[in-house]
Write a structure and sequence with these properties.
By secondary structure, this protein is mainly β. It contains no helices and 7 strands. It has one domain (3-78).
Length: 84
């Protein structure tokens, strides 16, 4: 079954006003070759910054960005209607 990734970009900001571009990837499996033609099944989204840093969705419009070498994650927030 083919799998495709749909991407969305989210703009978020930390407390100092620095902007972060977070890319959201969602794997979608096309099940149309089975008996339910046109059916798709979505997976859980994964997130990464443009620089490739790991991002965890904390809920609502908050995300935790993990930057290598820094002890703690940076919390960023977005006003994107899909997450607020």
């Amino acid at each position: 079954m083919p799998v495709s990734e749909h991407e969305k970009t989210i703009l978020a900001f930390d407390e100092a006003g620095n902007e972060y571009f977070i890319d959201m990837f969602l794997s979608v499996r096309d099940l149309s070759d089975l008996q339910h033609a046109g059916t798709t099944r979505g997976g859980l989204p994964s997130f990464r910054t443009r620089e490739g840093h790991s991002v965890r969705h904390l809920g609502g419009g908050e995300f935790a960005v993990m930057v290598p070498g820094e002890g703690e994650a940076t919390t960023v927030r977005t006003d994107d209607p899909e997450f607020v």
